[in-house]
Amino acid sequence: MMHFLTSSFQSLATQTGPSFWLPESVSNFAPTVDGDFYFVYWVSIFFLVLITALLIIFMWKFSAPEGQKATSQNDHNLILEIAWTGIPVILSLMMFWYGYKGYVAMATPPSNAMVITAEAAKWSWNFSYPASGTVVSGASEDFNEIRNALRTGDLTAEQAAEREAKVLEKAGLHVPVNTPVQVNVLAADVLHSLFIPAFRVKKDCVPGRIGQLWFEATEPGVYSLYCSEYCGQGHSAMHSKVVVHPSQEDFDKWLAVAASYDEALPFPELGEIVWKRKGCVSCHSLDGANKTGPTWKGLFGSERKYTENGTLGSAIADESYIEESIRYPMKKISDGYTGQMPVVKLTDKEILWVTEFIKSLR
Amino acid sequence: MFLLGGVFALLVRTELFSPIPLITPLFAGSDAGAQADLYNQWFTTHGAIMVFLVIIPGVPAALGNFVLPLLLGAKDVAFPRLNLGSFYLWVSGAAFFVYVLFSGGVDTGWTFYTPYSTSSPTAVIPAVVGVFILGFSSIFTGLNFIVTIHKMRPKGMTWFNMPLFLWATYSTAVIQVLATPVLGITLLLLILERTLGIGIFDPQNGGDPVLYQHFFWFYSHPAVYIMIIPAMGVISEIIAVHSHKRIFGYRYIAYSSVAIAIFSFIVWGHHMFTSGQSTMMNIIFSGITFSVGIPSAIKVFNWIATMYKGSINLNTSMLYGIAFIFLFTIGGLTGLFLGVLSIDTHLHDTYFVVAHFHYVMMGSALIAFVGGLHHWWPKMTGRMFNEFWGRIACMLVFIGFNLTFIPQFVMGSLGMPRRYYTYEDKFQIYHQLSTIGSYVMAAGFFLTAFYLIQSLVSGKKAPMNPWGGNSLEWHTPSPPPLENFHGVPSATDPYELDQFDYDPVTGNYSSQSSKGLA
Question: In this structure, what are the phi and psi dihedrals at residue A182, rounded to the nearest 5 degrees?
Fold first, then answer.
């Protein structure tokens, strides 16, 4: 029995593909967490089977018609009480100890870790790579589109995979394999949480605080990344992908491409890339539908009514109005909206492109 | 209210049958954002109604107010008017929730986490005011019970021959009185922040969202025990009476209620392992958290030992009692996973947590309420219900419940985050099983409502003591007369259960020598 238990935990804990209970296991922490999981699992199964068996046996053996007296009225046994207090105490101390050891390792990033910043906002991710100053988007909107197209049959599985690979060229959280990576998590508006099931890591993104998590990915591949702290309308659509590159060179090559804009493109097209990459897409539509923020269709040149410091005003949406709205989003709140836009840091060029893009949406 | 909360649960489950919008378009039109908003309002409404309006007042207020004076041989609770006041407060709290439903709903989740709750455009303030008022209802009930148990015990009843249900309600009442004010203050601060823009929790105004979580869970963790301890009290009565056997380990069960009540105040941080509180705090809270598990385990083993060599009637109440032990065991054991820091990091905010707390709050607290309702139904109404349909309904609820929530453990540990309107296709099979389970369970509850109402109309008249219990409520007619007892009763030994003779004609247990202690 004992041999069966220990061997089955190990085999379950060392496989890298998904098992019945746990997703694929591809980070330095995953084997420890899974080992802890299966330890608690088998202890729980043991007690559940024991208790269920006793319940069934007693129901079977001692059930009696109305009026029959019980065969015993014994109501205490000190040894039993000590046993069923002591054994759970010892087991739970063991569980605490394993969990504590595993957790301390997770909470302490090594000093040579590569640092990436993940910023969560309603409802998009941005990942920045401080070493090169590059910001790439989580592209949640694209992944959702692909997912929906796959469901409606507009894309075949292969086409979807192709589109996904194309999106990932300039989006997603990318890391090299077997390298310690520290992710600093920030939130622009409300609580979010960065969750990568395959790595067994999670950290809440709290506005006004910098949180951190770290991991070392052990298998190249593409894995899911979710927001796991409720953040409103787009919470379940706020997912992205983690790409683990097979080598540092491969990662560097990706970063160089992701950082660049193809500046040969016309400005409105570059603006559209910015719209997607920087998450404007989640609140500003192009088709006239008003979401969390005003639509961009027909915005340029229209008269805007707004509230500024409690007083009403109006202005024509020209280049300077748009630039101000991007740089200081909470200054003038358009009528009919609650003012939820975070400060999205765009370069001067990006603002120029976005403005041209809005202009083109007549 | 249970019906209303249940309907929202069914709406949520039906929507999740498929990852693409299924029934939200029927109510919210074709706008995807409005559909997601509607889903968010559904799960928020379900959670808030079930927690604040159903389970917290369920066993203590609904069952307790009837049973507690009877168990004490008293005419009524110590302050009947305060009791009526607490009922009126409950009604006004409920009225606020109904108002919220008609004024566009609320979408913050039942936890009202900041800064989402300070910025959400939905009707947060009316909902929070409702919860605030319900808090007072809960405090009044708790206060009343403490005084009643201290001052109105009958002649001869010492602390250690009180029925265990009284130990449980007493422990609960202490939590209600001490913890609920903290929730009240927290919610007041939330209202102030929303209306006046004072920066307490919102970092935009210099506040700290994690502070809100500390305040909130300082109440809401003990609140879990407001729900479960009285449920355990009900189970102690059910198991002993229907096994016709003296409760095993009386003092251990009694002390474990008190122990749980005390520990419940110092474990709130385990809701915040991934929130960014310090590593040291996480470690301390994880350690203390395991201490709550021990008294719970002690109770389970003592109940099982009570059944050993008993004379068990597998009637509806007892089946609910046994279902409780099984479901609470699962609820408790899965709590161990979440107490272990390394595992919780993975499982936090996933469906694993959802399944875990449903096993504790619904599978345990609510099942005990339903069990207690059947146990005391003849006493309350003077009518017997139909045992056959009772057992069928119990089985439906039990099977449906497990089918609903076991798949949620699996998808949670596979990484399905909670409060998701749409999800990856690989999770669909688990959601479908879960939805089917919820329908089975709903069928069980409708059946229960049906035969209970039917018993009021045409049920057999209940005898004084249909189960053979010896606590004082079984020594007065069913239903009890005005002022509960004819004359002033003196204390019995509530677990002296082998002295009765069963009369198959009347269905009554009677005793020639009903032994009083006084």
Answer: -105, 130
In this structure, the answer to whether residues A293 and A355 fall within a common structural domain is yes
Each as own residue / partner, the long-range contacts of residues B197-205 (CB below 8 Å, 24 or more positions apart, any chain) are B201/B114, B201/B115, B201/B118, B202/B114, B202/B115, B202/B118, B202/B119, B203/A206, B203/A207, B203/A208, B203/A209, B203/B115, B204/A207, B204/B115
Using CA coordinates, name the residue in chain A closest to B409: A21
Angle at B89 between CA B85 and CA B94, to 5 degrees: 150
ipTM of the complex: 0.91
CB-based contact (8 Å) between B359 and chain A?
no
Q: Inform me whether the C-beta atom of residue B309 falls under 8 Å from chain A C-beta atoms.
A: yes
pLDDT at residue A8 tops 70: no
In this structure, the answer to whether residues A15 and A41 fall within a common structural domain is yes
CB of A97 within 8 Å of a chain B CB? The answer is: no
Is A195 in Cβ contact with B415 (below 8 Å)? yes
Question: Which pLDDT score, from 0 to 100, does residue A18 have?
Answer: 87
Residue B517 falls inside a structural domain: no
Give the nearest chain A residue to B346 (CA atoms).
A200
CATH number at residue A183: 2.60.40.420
Q: What is the per-residue pLDDT across A110-155, written as a single tens digit (0 to 9) for each?
A: 999 999 999 999 889 999 887 766 788 888 989 999 999 998 889 9
pTM for the model: 0.88
A11-29 burial by CB neighbour count: b if 16+ within 10 A, else e? ebbeeeeebebbbbbbbbb
Asked if A106's CB is within 8 angstroms of B343's CB, the reply is no
What are the backbone dihedrals phi and psi of residue B245, each rounded to the nearest 5 degrees, phi first? -140, 145
Q: Which residues of B touch A234 (CB under 8 A)?
A: 33, 36
Measured between CB atoms, does B37 come within 8 Å of chain A?
A: yes
State the smallest CA–CA distance between residue A184 and chain B in angstroms. Answer: 12
- Closest partner residue to B337 (CB to CB) among A40, A72, A147 is A40
Assess whether pLDDT exceeds 90 at residue A98. Answer: yes
What is the block-wise mean pLDDT of chain B (518 residues), using blocks of 10 residues? 84 88 85 89 92 89 90 91 92 92 88 89 91 93 94 90 93 93 93 89 87 93 92 95 93 94 92 91 93 93 94 94 96 95 95 96 95 95 95 96 96 95 92 95 95 93 91 91 87 86 85 49
Which residues in chain B have their CB less than 8 angstroms from residue A206's CB? 203, 209-210, 275-276
Cβ-defined contact of A21 to B19 (cutoff 8 Å): no
Residue-number span of the structural domain to which A291 is assigned:
267-360
Do A248 and A322 share a domain, yes or no? Answer: no
Is A106 at the interface with chain B, CB within 8 A?
yes
Is residue A118 domain-shared with residue A101, that is, in the same domain? no
Q: Encode pLDDT of B448-490 as tens digits.
A: 999 999 999 999 999 999 998 999 999 999 899 988 888 888 8
Mean pLDDT, chain B, rounded, equals 91
CA distance B373 to B385: 11
Q: Does A151 touch chain B (CB under 8 A)?
A: yes
